[in-house]
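Most newcomers find our protein records easier to grasp once they have seen one. A learned vocabulary of local backbone shapes supplies the integers on the structure line. An example says more than a description, so a record of this kind follows:
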Amino acid sequence: MAVRRDGRAAMAGDGQVSLGQTVMKSGARKVRRIADGKVIAGFAGASADAFTLLERFEAKLKEHRTPAGDKGGLARAAVELAKDWRTDRYLRRLEAMLVVMDASATFLISGTGDVIEPDEGVIAIGSGGPYALAAARALMRHTTMAPADIAREALRTAGEICVYTNQNVVVEEIEG
């Protein structure tokens, strides 16, 4: 769950790792800082696949560095990863999704070639993603809450509804 508002941005992730209908781990860290702490990345899906994609994404960021405050570097890295993910035989088999954000932009990256920048400043992935997204949109429209609080509360709401989402929430913030 990623939220952007008033020059501030936050990403939150739950801690649940499920295998079929079994909770294998409840305290996983699905949200982390990369690129010397300047980018926050979160994932949903198969953990090993997501870590492979995060490594590839960080390499793309290093290739396409731009001056601070310019969303071009993050966007270019996201597009390049999506292209590789779609065309590379090894990467094509990976089953995960990524959301990445820096001080100026947020993108969802998928294995089908999607690179999506959200319209309303919120985006969510994973089993509880639709529930968290709905809650976050309502909070954005009807409160003045900070992005970190919106992300945290939206995931808690999703955890009350979705059996594949728990309430062990980790939040990372970035200021523009």
Observations:
- The first helix runs from residue 47 to 63.
- The CA atoms of residues 52 and 163 lie 26 Å apart.
- The mean pLDDT is 92.
